[in-house]
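Support request from a user on the community tier.

User writes: "When I paste my structure tokens into the form, the page sometimes reloads and wipes my input. The last time it worked, I copied everything first. Here is what I submitted, just in case something in the input itself triggers the reload:"
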């Protein structure tokens, strides 16, 4: 789900180009539950963020963000993550990711979610964690959670 049809269409086109027929992107508010979507073994929350991990590619991000933005984004991110849990089957995985390096948007959101949802647990993989920007990749965060 993406608020914007254009972005949902880009995801769908990318999936088609890669031959991935199990991905179905659509426009809609990811923070609002839609029972018609059903439940899944895997759910990815690539939430909107401050984009501080991609400053090298998008330096204007530094000019367009302030502390109030981070606080507002954190709330949106948490609402999406908290709603996404409704689509995860028992034993299924919920992946939370951002393209930022701020703890408030990353670890803090995941820790709050786990505190409020004892039917989920960390389910780490070798890729989980915070990645700082470098010559080979942008900065991002990824954490895998499992519904017990």
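"...and here is what came back when it finally went through:"
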């Amino acid at each position: 789900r993406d608020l914007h049809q254009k972005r949902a269409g880009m995801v769908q086109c990318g999936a088609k180009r890669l031959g991935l027929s199990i991905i179905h992107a659509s426009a809609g508010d990811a923070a609002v539950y839609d029972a018609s979507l059903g439940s899944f073994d895997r759910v990815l929350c690539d939430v909107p963020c401050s984009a501080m991990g991609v400053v090298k590619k998008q330096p204007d991000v530094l000019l367009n963000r302030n502390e109030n933005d981070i606080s507002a984004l954190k709330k949106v991110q948490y609402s999406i993550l908290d709603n996404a849990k409704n689509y995860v089957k028992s034993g299924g995985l919920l992946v939370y990711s951002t393209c930022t390096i701020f703890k408030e948007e990353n670890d803090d959101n995941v820790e709050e979610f786990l505190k409020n949802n004892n039917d989920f647990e960390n389910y780490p993989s070798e890729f989980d964690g915070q990645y700082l920007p470098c010559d080979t990749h942008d900065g991002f965060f990824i954490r895998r959670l499992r519904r017990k």
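Agent notes: The reload is a front-end session timeout and is unrelated to the input. Residues 2 and 27 are 5 Å apart (CA to CA). The longest helix spans residues 67-84. Escalated to web team.
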